[in-house]
UniProtKB/TrEMBL annotation:
Main location as per UniProt: membrane
Protein name, UniProt field: ABC transporter ATP-binding protein
CDD domains reported in the protein's UniProt record: ABC_Iron-Siderophores_B12_Hemin (cd03214)
Residue ranges constituting the ABC transporter domain according to the UniProt record: 9-245
Classification via SUPFAM superfamilies: P-loop containing nucleoside triphosphate hydrolases
Listed GO MF terms: ATP binding
Keyword Membrane: yes
Length: 268
């Protein structure tokens, strides 16, 4: 397991709210640079809200988010878009957009009045389509694709943005198991070969343990615990955070923690 490094994205005393109701409460968090960080926790605990706060999609009620030690609130939107890409839950595209047109939108932050589209933009767009297996669907309208295909198209757009940081909210949604593994392998490859900092929300604890360098467990809008999976994932954590009895064993393939949930039927 790789050691954690200096933070690239930091939250200090961060409180996030919807219509006055606080979802994230005075949260402190440092995202290590060049690592894969996974946020886990039960439904409604604040994972997605936290991701929006880190991306400046949701203005803090209290506290500050820092990007490379600079308050993200003070940075121009275009500068943020060049450094930080986000894939939210269930994004809605404009009507009639093709896959290629969607992916090309990832290049907009890199364009200027003098140069609207370049050969580099074209190359990166094509590579994003190829990497996600969407090249054959490039000229199809998004609304004609399956849920899994649309999800891969959105991921291709995030890749085309070519940022140092990628924030992904449940990126495996709508994907079958084979494509889930393919996508998570791809994200880890981007991390390992290109140094991308990846932050994602995952529901599958075993996938989180297998792919994360660093785990952050959220409970009731606060960080319950954080660290490498071998330290974070314990039977006590699963019980106190998810209200579930479990057995934690070593994954026979990767050696990372493997959570076996115990239902009433499976208990001795």
């Amino acid at each position: 397991m790789k050691e954690t490094s200096l933070p690239i994205l930091t939250a200090r005393k961060l409180t996030l709210a919807y219509q006055g109701n606080s979802i994230v409460n005075e949260l402190d968090l440092a995202i290590p640079s060049g690592k894969v960080t996974v946020l886990i926790g039960p439904n409604g605990c604040g994972k997605s809200t936290l991701l929006k706060g880190l991306a400046r999609l949701l203005k803090p009620k209290i506290g500050t988010v820092y990007l490379n030690s600079v308050s993200i609130a003070k940075l121009p939107t275009k500068k943020i878009a060049k450094n930080l890409g986000i894939l939210p839950q269930n994004p809605i595209p404009p009507e009639g957009l093709t896959v290629r047109e969607l992916v090309a939108q990832g290049r907009y932050p890199h364009q200027t009045w003098l140069q609207q589209w370049s050969s580099e933009d074209e190359q990166i767009t094509e590579q994003a389509l190829l990497t996600t297996g969407m090249l054959e669907f490039a000229d199809r309208a998004l609304n004609t694709l399956s849920g899994g295909q649309r999800q891969r198209a959105w991921i291709a757009m995030a890749l085309a943005q070519n940022t140092d940081i990628l924030l992904l909210d449940e990126p495996t949604t709508f994907l079958d198991l084979a494509h889930q593994v393919e996508l998570l392998d791809l994200l880890c490859e981007l991390n390992q070969t290109r140094g991308r900092t990846i932050v994602m929300v995952l529901h599958d604890l075993n996938q989180a343990c297998r792919y994360a360098d660093y785990l952050v467990v959220i409970r009731n809008g606060e960080v319950y615990t954080q660290g490498i999976p071998e330290v974070v994932i314990t039977e006590t954590t699963i019980k106190e955070v998810f209200g579930l009895e479990s057995k934690i064993i070593s994954d026979p393939v990767t050696g990372t923690p493997l959570c076996i949930p115990l239902s009433r039927r499976s208990r001795p």
